[in-house]
Every structure is written in structure tokens, then in C-alpha cells.
């Protein structure tokens, strides 16, 4: 799960998906991680508003931001991102990777409510983080149903 900085949207999506997988007792079938297309926040914990939003839904995460690597494109079956800018950056990076096996697409592709883009809540309010959580939950559930 990929976003620009890996401190808001993608860590929320990662934590949500990990909880869904755990609740379904499918941990042994999935390797879940999140990363950034940029190196701006490498090593930082998620935004405090993202952590607060997750805690409000009974989800904890110890994630630290990292930048996507060449190996990610060779290892993961799916790389899901949040918006068109992420998608362009990931497609460009994947073209430079030999043996890229990852299917790269927008997480919002799986949204039953058809909200394709998951907007960055960084400059918004706590309500915007809740919107991201709800979108990620819908999309991750639908993705898991499709590939489980």
C-alpha cells in the first residue's frame, strides 16, 4: 500500500488490511506492508491523527515510514496506491525494474462506493482521517474478498 509520504493514508490502509486478515485468520497467506514513493518521511511514525483514528477503531500499528524499493516490485503480487500521482510514480519506477511481478493499481478501484481516489488528509481535519479510514476499510474488504 503506497502513498506519497507513508505517514497518513498508506499506514492506515496497511493497519486496516492487517486487521482484516488477522480477523479472518489468514495471516499466513498475506504479507502486508506500506511504503512511500518519496523519501521525505523515512523512519517516522505515522501522523498522530492517523494513529488516533486507528486507535478509535481498535487498531494499533508500529509502522515506520519507508520508501518503496526495487525488491518490492519483484516480491509483492499487488501494489495498491492512493491517487493518480502515486500510480504514475509507481508505474515509472516499475518500468526500471527487471522482473516486476507486482500488479500496480489504485486501492480505490475496489471501492464499492466507486470513490477511486483516497485524498491525502495531511492538511485536513480529523474528519478527513476518518474519511480515509472508511474508504480504506471498504476497499480492503472488497480486495480481500476478491483475492481470498
TrEMBL record:
Q: Which GO terms describe its cellular component?
A: cytoplasm
Q: Any idea which residues are catalytic in this one?
A: 9, 120
Compartments reported by the entry: Cytoplasm
Enzyme's top EC category = hydrolase
Major localization class: cytoplasm
What CDD domains does UniProt report for this protein, alphabetically? LMWPTP (cd16343)
Q: Which GO terms describe its molecular function?
A: acid phosphatase activity; non-membrane spanning protein tyrosine phosphatase activity
Give the reactions, separated by semicolons, that this protein catalyses.
a phosphate monoester + H2O = an alcohol + phosphate; O-phospho-L-tyrosyl-[protein] + H2O = L-tyrosyl-[protein] + phosphate
Record keywords: Methyltransferase included? no
InterPro entries per record: LMW_PTPase, Ptyr_pPase, Ptyr_pPase_sf, Tyr_Pase_low_mol_wt_mml, Tyr_phospatase_low_mol_wt
As recorded in UniProt, its EC number(s) are 3.1.3.2, 3.1.3.48
Which keywords does this Swiss-Prot/TrEMBL entry list? Answer: Cytoplasm, Hydrolase, Protein phosphatase
Q: Which residues form the Phosphotyrosine protein phosphatase I domain?
A: 2-146
Q: Does the keyword Protease apply?
A: no
**Protein family according to the UniProt entry:** Belongs to the low molecular weight phosphotyrosine protein phosphatase family.
Question: What role does this protein play?
Answer: Acts on tyrosine phosphorylated proteins, low-MW aryl phosphates and natural and synthetic acyl phosphates.
Q: What is this protein called?
A: Low molecular weight phosphotyrosine protein phosphatase
Species of origin reads Motacilla alba
